[in-house]
Design brief:
Length: about 700
């Protein structure tokens, strides 16, 4: 049998080739191949890397302790299983993944092959779903397990993807961190043995982003092979990289087995989240651009994804909990005069019997505080949205919520103490004085949906910042953590479908839930509670390894910075924030220096001007803050007609010459006009570079280049 799908992968190949029981999945510059082992019926990995066509040489046998396989399996009660190939189905397009966020696309974008496996001893079936998006060299995989027997089984381990790399030296790159220190790149050699991480916090967390890159030791930002793996999931995950005794490297990403034990009665099934894998021969930069393009076009479904986001002012660092109708109105008025388009009221606006005047009370009671907002929420929103911005349009109004949480000091907790995640009579650990509602319960999901729907229909609210400020501690059973995430997805799906015109921003004490699962519903995420511009360069560039700039919220805050006391110039803070898709301010405009007030309208106008390139363009990390005193980033617009260069100097050193910054991705033989002066060919810009002098610490430049017409 020789089967071909509709659209092409690499020149001369099809996206899917089935040759007997060998399956080849092709993108523009990637091939992924596996076959059914004739003796055992197992699926064996053959190749994942640059494109291949035709037969490949067989590996020497036997490979003891290291047979490549697509599904390392083990059934209930035994240490062996026989999940054998039965059949396969080809689907043009991509079926949804019920209950879970998933990449999507039409027949012209993606082709899917489902491999059906069955173990006739345990009567367990498994479907392995592979979808290829050729344009992004992305293979997306998920696994579904079905209990086709008569008894009950328990799924203890369910990975989304397992892939084996042939014997070679490899590095692994992860994004680890902490609160206010998100997405720090760590690169290490894959030695023999087990590496990786298990996150058990119940949310994707600041500690380990559900992302992994594999690269050759010689791979750089712009050259060499790089594989990126990104789990479309918001809960606890596990990433394992294991180099066997003979040198094969197995990569597995999926649900954290310590929080699964999922019971499956006869006829029931469980699907894993999907794992996106991309391959690039253009280094880590190429890998990131593939993920960014895929996520912008085939994961994030908000109508705002491709739009310039309204420049916002968030009240948090300006007022913290000290908010009321009149001070909110005052700073909204000041911000409108500076060019802000959206005013966001952060924490502290709700709670009647247990007012939210600090983090000690009120979560769960989503009614406006009658003392702080004596005329109601609607009246505040009307007053603020009646203000006109510098563009003569009315200001938008946005609101902060943390709907998955409850303070014990709240009417909600008094009424429903049984609604929180807890383990019997064991003490309930409070973090930031709060407990987590058990979103695994349908009544809790319905309560949150009703509260949010009430708030959003009670006033003219255009934006919601959805926060989540603690990890899970006590849960009644291991499976409650995954049940929570499935409940969360139902809530997010319902609310975002019901309110498609509201711009949602995710947040979890900053970037604690910066993951592809959240991005399905929210087009932007507050990248970090650390708003210091120097730290933000590392955090935003770290996040950009997996996530597009368009998904990052980035704000100018006051100096000295509230998190680390550092003072940087306004322009530097603004330029760093402009590298995020959602640019804003996080300060009290009344406290700005006169010269800062004078420059802000121009900086806001610049951010709005370059935003289409940042939001929809391709990103090149030219130099990294942990390697250079001069970090630099470049974006190229979708139609390649414009480029924007961000160039920073962290410290001024005496008698030191600033290195030239070499651009990338331009058309060699075309001429580019630099705004403010200069006209050079792409070749000169890329091979010779541009030189700038900063003259002080925390210098920055935003350079706009326009390609001249032919
Ligand atoms: C944590 C968020 O990350 C902050 O931006 C702010 O919204 C606070 N929560 C409010 O409590």
């Amino acid at each position: 049998m020789h089967d071909e799908a509709l659209h092409s992968g690499a020149p001369g190949t099809s996206a899917l080739l089935v040759d007997g029981k060998t399956f080849t999945i092709n993108g523009n510059t990637v091939s992924y191949q596996f076959h059914v082992d004739g003796d055992t019926g197992d699926l064996r990995t053959d190749h994942f890397g640059g494109p291949i066509t035709g037969p490949i040489p067989a590996d020497p046998k036997p490979l003891i302790n290291g047979v490549p396989t697509e599904l390392p399996d083990r059934p209930e009660g035994y240490t062996v299983s026989e999940l054998k190939y039965q059949a396969h189905t080809i689907v043009r397009g991509k079926p949804g993944l019920p209950g879970l966020p998933a990449t999507f696309g039409g027949e012209e974008d993606v082709t899917t092959i489902i491999i059906h496996l069955y173990d006739d001893k345990s009567q367990v079936a498994a479907d392995l779903t592979y979808s290829i998006f050729p344009k992004y060299d992305a293979v997306v995989r998920s696994v579904s397990v079905m209990n086709q027997g008569t008894g009950n089984i328990t799924v203890e381990v369910l990975a989304s993807l397992s892939v084996d790399f042939a014997v070679q030296d490899l590095d692994m790159i992860t994004l680890s961190g902490d609160h206010m220190r998100e997405a720090h790149r760590e690169r290490r050699k894959v030695e023999r043995g087990l590496h990786g991480f298990q996150n058990s916090t119940g949310f994707s967390s600041h500690l380990y982003n559900p992302f992994l890159a594999i690269a050759h030791p010689s791979t750089t930002e712009s050259q060499g092979s790089a594989w990126g793996f990104s789990l479309v999931y918001t809960g606890s995950s596990a990433v394992n990289v294991e180099k066997s005794s003979q040198g094969l490297t197995r990569v597995i990403l999926g649900l954290n087995p310590a929080q699964l034990s999922w019971p499956l009665a006869s006829g029931e099934s469980l699907s894993s989240p999907e794992c996106v894998s991309v391959y690039s021969n253009q280094g880590l930069g190429g890998m990131s651009r593939a993920l960014h393009g895929l996520y912008r076009n085939h994961l994030m479904r908000s109508k705002f994804v491709r739009q310039n986001r309204p420049v916002l002012l968030n009240s948090w660092e300006g007022l913290y909990f000290d908010i009321n109708h009149s001070n909110l109105y005052e700073i909204a008025k000041e911000s409108a005069a500076l060019g802000v388009k959206l005013f966001v009221m952060d924490d502290g606006w709700f709670g009647k019997d247990y007012p939210r005047i600090s983090d000690e009370a009120g979560l769960g009671d989503w009614v406006p505080n009658p003392h702080r907002l004596p005329h109601g929420l609607d009246s505040l929103v009307n007053d603020i949205t009646a203000l006109k911005g510098t563009n003569s349009a009315n200001l938008w109004f946005g609101i902060w919520v943390e709907p998955e949480m409850v303070n014990p000091k709240s009417n909600l907790y008094c009424a429903h103490p049984d609604w929180v995640l807890s383990a019997g009579t064991y003490p309930r650990t409070e973090l930031r004085n709060q407990l987590i509602l058990n979103l695994g319960l349908p009544e809790v999901q319905d309560y949150i949906i009703a509260c949010l729907s009430n708030i959003l229909t009670s006033a003219n609210i255009s934006y919601v910042k959805w926060d989540h400020n603690r990890s899970m501690t006590e849960i009644q059973t291991p499976s409650a953590a995954h049940a929570y995430i499935l409940g969360l997805y139902r809530v997010l799906d319902t609310i975002t479908t019901r309110f498609p015109d509201v711009l949602f921003e995710g947040c979890a004490a900053g970037g604690g839930r910066f993951d592809p699962g959240i991005l399905q519903f929210f087009p932007q995420i507050w990248t970090s509670d650390n708003t210091d511009a120097v730290d933000r360069i590392s955090i935003q560039l770290g996040m950009s390894l997996a996530y597009p700039a368009s998904s990052m919220g980035a704000h100018i805050s006051a100096v000295p910075n509230h998190q680390n006391n550092r003072t940087t110039p306004l322009e530097f803070r603004a330029h760093v924030a402009m590298m995020g898709g959602s640019f804003g301010l996080e300060l009290d405009p009344k406290k700005l220096l006169p010269e800062e007030k004078a420059s802000l309208p121009g900086l806001i106008a610049l951010a709005e001007r370059i935003s289409p390139v940042v939001v929809n363009g391709d990103m090149w990390r030219l130099s990294l803050p942990h390697e250079s005193n001069w970090p630099a980033v470049q974006f190229i617009s979708e139609d390649a007609s414009q480029a924007v260069l961000f160039y920073f100097q962290l410290q001024q050193h005496v008698n030191e010459i600033t290195p030239r910054v070499k651009l990338q991705g331009l058309a060699s033989n075309r001429m580019y006009q630099i705004e403010g002066g200069g006209r050079y060919s792409g070749m000169v810009l890329m091979n010779h570079g541009l030189n700038y002098y900063f003259g002080s610490d925390y210098g920055s430049k935003v350079v706009i280049l326009t390609k001249e017409p032919l």
